[in-house]
């Protein structure tokens, strides 16, 4: 009986290492909110990118150390909502959208609601969806589009109020991309524990060097291209674009696979 009791107590514990990275990401997202409220927009944008790094590490650390847990998954979703939902929406609102009145906060709300719906849909599709692709723009990438734009604009001394309508359009569109059915590469098929050619390491070093020269510009361009890649991939893959390929319950995945099968078998579309 004593061993059973000790096992129960042990199972109720929380793994420290992966949740430490999740907490760091949550802290970065919360700091981004506070910094944006104090008009420190560059620091807020950088904090969102730091949250992205922490978010990328917590899951991989959990898998490498075999410390996955239901608590960790739920905690990660809550932290993501703060870091990639609330923080970018408030950052965009405080930087450019406040002067638009209702239109401004509605654009910020569309983004925030899109992030919440994107995270909820992702959680319900774990173990079912194709791991090679995301359905809709991932919330960290969407947050990077907003944060990268504001970071770049702040470096060039651009006043967000002068481009408030453009900022509102980008914010709302990014939110809608998160709840769309556009397919985005997840890069989860990459074996991070496997061996690579020496040239791959040199290329990785080159990427770090290029990003370090103009981090705001390079990151902003990179994530804009990634956001555009979803519609391009979807339109290129399907035979005929339908409403279900843009919004809906994900039935487009079945048609995409059927199209691939017909192409591989030599059938004409």
Automatic annotation (TrEMBL):
What family classification does the UniProt entry report for this protein? Belongs to the CDP-alcohol phosphatidyltransferase class-I family.
Swiss-Prot/TrEMBL keywords: Lipid biosynthesis, Lipid metabolism, Membrane, Phospholipid biosynthesis, Phospholipid metabolism, Transferase, Transmembrane, Transmembrane helix
EC class: transferase
Q: Which residues form a coiled coil?
A: none
Give one GO molecular function term: CDP-diacylglycerol-serine O-phosphatidyltransferase activity
Q: Which reaction does it catalyse?
A: a CDP-1,2-diacyl-sn-glycerol + L-serine = a 1,2-diacyl-sn-glycero-3-phospho-L-serine + CMP + H(+)
Task: Specify the protein name.
Answer: CDP-diacylglycerol--serine O-phosphatidyltransferase
Q: Where can this protein be found? A: Endomembrane system
The EC designation for this entry is 2.7.8.8
Look up and give the membrane topology term.
Multi-pass membrane protein
Q: Which InterPro entries match?
A: CDP-alcohol_PTase-I (IPR050324), CDP-diaglyc--ser_O-PTrfase (IPR004533), CDP-OH_P_trans (IPR000462), CDP-OH_PTrfase_TM_dom (IPR043130), CDP_ALCOHOL_P_TRANSF_CS (IPR048254)
The primary gene name is: pssA
Domain of life here?
A: Bacteria
Q: Which organism is it from?
A: Shewanella cutis
The record, for Pfam families, names: CDP-OH_P_transf
Entry's transmembrane regions:
12-33, 103-120, 132-151, 163-184, 196-226
